[in-house]
TrEMBL record:
Residues 1-78 form the Alkyl hydroperoxide reductase subunit C/ Thiol specific antioxidant domain. It holds the Pfam family AhpC-TSA. Coiled coil: none annotated. It comes from Candidatus Lucifugimonas marina. It comes from the Bacteria. GO terms for molecular function: antioxidant activity; oxidoreductase activity. SUPFAM superfamilies: Thioredoxin-like. This is Redoxin family protein. Signal peptide: none annotated.
Amino acid sequence: MQREQAALDDAGVQILAISTDNLNGPAGLYEQQGYEFPVLFTALDTSIPEQYGVFNLFGDGLASASVFLIDTNGEIVWKSVGLNYTHQVEASEIIEQVEKLK
């Protein structure tokens, strides 16, 4: 997502990443990668991915990598739920979906 930040910004997309990882490990990784979007660390609390229905889908005790487009009213208008925790959606697909919703 970081590589496509400018295109996502131009499309009006705001990114918020949510991670259930422990702060001691991934926080440094996010800093090293130079991410410019906010990352919410839930410190192993799985309640957010559970509420979005993306936790433990495959019996692995992990949140699937997922993308949700949420409109200004707080409604989910599109989602992509990954096949596992490593699945990534291309920024171009997100932008395409945003354009369809306009």
